[in-house]
Amino acid sequence: LTGRPDSPDGKTIIPLSAFGVVVMSIGFMVDPSKAVVWRGPMLQGALQQMLGQVQWGDLDVLIVDLPPGTGDVQLTLCQKAELSGAIIVSTPQDVSLIDAKKAIDMLNGLKVPVLGLVENMSNYICPKCGYEAEIFGHGGVSAEASKMGLPFWGEIPLDLEIRLSGDTGKPIAAGDNSISEPYARIAQKLIDSVISN
Ligand SMILES: [Zn+2]
Q1: How far is the CA of 127 from the centre of ligand 1 (A)?
Q2: What is the residue-wise DSSP string for 130-185?
Q3: What is the CA(158)–ligand 1 centre distance, in A?
Q4: ∠107-111-112 over CA atoms, to 5°?
Q5: How far is the CA of 117 from the centre of ligand 1 (A)?
Q6: pTM of the predicted model, to two decimals?
Q7: Which residue, 4, 21, 42, 188, could crosslink 38 as a Cys pair with Cβ 3.0–4.6 Å?
Q8: Per-residue pLDDT tens over the stretch 92-105
Q9: How remote is the CA of residue 128 from the centroid of ligand 1, in Å?
Q10: Ligand 1 centroid to 129 CA: how many Å?
Q11: pLDDT tens profile 144-183
């Protein structure tokens, strides 16, 4: 998905869309060759634009993808928006889990429910010989979830097909094969916990 979102009146922003998913990203608004070096107030302004000025239309669910951390943006989002909850995505390694645990601690403090945990880059299966390599470890997120009494939603493998299909613009989740399956299962958990409630 590339391009620049339209703003016919200079105030509202028309988001881009693909595969029935409406998408808005700071990446669409800035020079792709420049790093986004923004301080807190600028990030908060961008967040407010995203929530208030983008013509989202009639959505089933709005997912805000944030980098790991407990900074200004995460805090502002939790305080200013009426959130159904948070989904924690982490690799199985300790270094990644430490960030995840800090985020969960912040969410608890702000009374934002943690809906579920997802283990990303969970394992790697060699396409040539089928050997399963646990490059970042395996099972760390599931173990942490049960320790904290939180729902574990599933594992996303580290797979070349995920990157290749993403690069061609057709996400693996939109397909119908063994690698798209975990995405579908996780999406169903989201539907069960947010939309059906
Ligand atoms: Zn191999």
Answers
A1: 7
A2: --EE-BTBSSHHHHHHHHHT--EEEEE---HHHHHHHHHT--GGGS-STTHHHHHH
A3: 14
A4: 55
A5: 29
A6: 0.85
A7: 42
A8: 888 888 989 999 99
A9: 5
A10: 4
A11: 999 999 999 999 888 888 888 888 888 888 888 888 899 9
